[in-house]
Amino acid sequence: xxxxxxxxxxxxxxxxxxxxxxxxxxxxxxxxxxxxxxxxxxxxxxxxxxxxxxxxxxxxxxxxxxxxxxxxxxxxxxxxxxxxxxxxxxxxxxxxxxxxxxxxxxxxxxxxxxxxxxxxxxxxxxxxxxxxxxxxxxxxxxxxxxxxxxxxxxxxxxxxxxxxxxxxxxxxxxxxxxxxxxxxxxxxxxxxxxxxxxxxxxxxxxxxxxxxxxxxxxxxxxxxxxxxxxxxxxxxxxxxxxxxxxxxxxxxxxxxxxxxxxxxxxxxxxxxxxxxxxxxxxxxxxxxxxxxxxxxxxxxxxxxxxxxxxxxxxxxxxxxxxxxxxxxxxxxxxxxxxxxxxxxxxxxxxxxxxxxxxxxxxxxxxxxxxxxxxxxxxxxxxxxxxxxxxxxxxxxxxxxxxxxxxxxxxxxxxxxxxx
Length: 419
Fold this sequence. Notes:
Blueprint: E1 9-14, H1 18-29, E2 34-37, E3 49-52, E4 55-58, E5 64-65, H2 69-74, H3 77-80, E6 82-84, E7 88-93, E8 96-101, H4 110-114, H5 121-136, H6 139-144, H7 150-156, H8 161-176, H9 185-197, E9 200-203, H10 209-216, E10 223-224, E11 229-233, E12 236-239, E13 244-252, H11 256-262, E14 271-281, E15 291-294, E16 301-304, H12 305-308, E17 318-325, H13 331-349, E18 357-369, E19 382-384, E20 387-389, H14 399-416
Parallel strand pairs: 1-2, 1-13, 2-10, 7-15, 13-20
Antiparallel strand pairs: 3-4, 5-9, 6-9, 7-8, 11-12, 12-13, 14-17, 14-18, 16-17, 19-20
Helix pairs in contact: 1-10, 1-14, 5-9
């Protein structure tokens, strides 16, 4: 039982990532008393940006998709001052660099696409049909179909193995942080649809501007930073410092490790880990805001962030972000890995990378949940009476999934509270 004299809030949200913030905003909008406690010194969870020697460094390479319904509903896109990537990406192959640009947005790219360098007529026809279906058909139709892996879905769509290796495998590896094409096809189709219908971009102030915008819509004083939760109690939450925070309902919206500690009843998926290397170059090796992937899979993707958002770095410097699967390696092995990566980037960009400076390295543990088929696109947030959980692991592993999971948790809490 809570100690006498303590204020009891209606709902306590543990974690100020985008799922927790979305949940708190919906609860506050419904007139429910809500508080948010966050262990770190800022909102955002994994969606954070830091300043390092005058550069904006996102915690791992991240992009923002304007097509997500939850994003369009909740965020002031103009206020984020978004800067777009090229609508497509480049692929580094042993035969050189090949480009794929969406011809519906840039018709001038059609002759290059039809040249046959990237794919032959049959694969282009299969790609066009797959894209048309994903872009135009209601998403609900995909949800009702049996789920399979991306590899099986592409084969079923008539995509050749050669085109899978040249185009889809490097793309899927960068999006889902796995290169075996074992992710749910249901999730893949939704992501492909969102890329076709939206714009991939970055906020001028870094990806951390997204959760800051969400938090700004909460009543003043709702979010309490540097307050890690130690455990859940019958009456609410006991902080790591031993403070009681009583609440009628508790929503856990934390990273997977913390969620598992606070709610052992919740079965969490395996998570993918990614490491991003940030190099500073004296000039851009690309000259355009385009993502570059590698068919040899030496890296997931690389891009010149200052080509996308010039203010990511001071004048006269280019910031290059390159992501690889797994954790950073310490010591001599780590130096060897960075040298090998630098050599791969020299080949991919066609430039000398010997003069590049390594600014920093960011490893994101639990960057994305593994989503093998069959994968439900949404799950209940209810765990036990008065205890709920939300996050990207309850949906599609994206910002859209995290926001939608937070929204579902708020709806279920309101229903259980009789609101």
